[in-house]
Amino acid sequence: MTSNTNQLIVLTDAVLLTAIVQRGAADLVVQAAQEAGAQGATIFHARGTGVRQKHLGILGLTVNSEKEVIYIVVPSEQADRMFERIFVTAKLDTPGMGILWMTNLEKMATYVPHEVSARFGIHAEPRK
Fold first, then answer.
1. What is the DSSP letter of 94?
2. Which of 16, 17, 59, 116 would you call most buried, defined as having the most Cβ atoms within 10 angstroms of its Cβ?
3. Contact 75, 37 (CB under 8 A)
4. What is the enclosing helix (H) or strand (E) of 82?
């Protein structure tokens, strides 16, 4: 397939993993995800608020309001493994470190090189 704008390949069976982590943790999380097979990620900065922002229980930990949000799209069959890898790497079993969730994507589209689509038997259909 060339970069013809009249062709559209719709991908299904994909999952969006979203992680909100402490500022500075995203690079390590993305590196672990890529080692586990992720093709890439989107990271952006955010500021969080909430009940736990000031002090966290009897531990007296201060939770930074500066966060990083990570989006990673993976095939459904890799999602559970990737979810666990991100959870462990981001230390989300520690109070105040962040949150992770998984969303099934009904469909998505992006440029897919011909050699990749041919490997999976995917053929581009002309857009209407």
1. S
2. 17
3. no
4. helix 76-89
Question: What residues are paired with 101 via a beta bridge?
Answer: 18
Burial of residue 44 (CB within 10 Å: 0-12, 13-18, 19+) is exposed
Whole-angstrom distance, CA of residue 68 vs CA of residue 27: 10
CB atoms within 10 A of CB 30: 21
Model confidence, pTM: 0.76
29-87 residue pLDDT tens: 999 999 999 989 999 999 887 655 455 555 555 567 889 999 999 999 999 999 999 99
Write the burial class of residue 113 (CB in 10 Å: 0-12 exposed, 13-18 middle, 19+ buried): exposed
Angstrom distance (rounded) from CA 80 to CA 105: 15
Q: Smallest Cα–Cα separation from 99: which of 54, 58, 75, 63? A: 63
In eight-state DSSP terms, residue 58 is: G
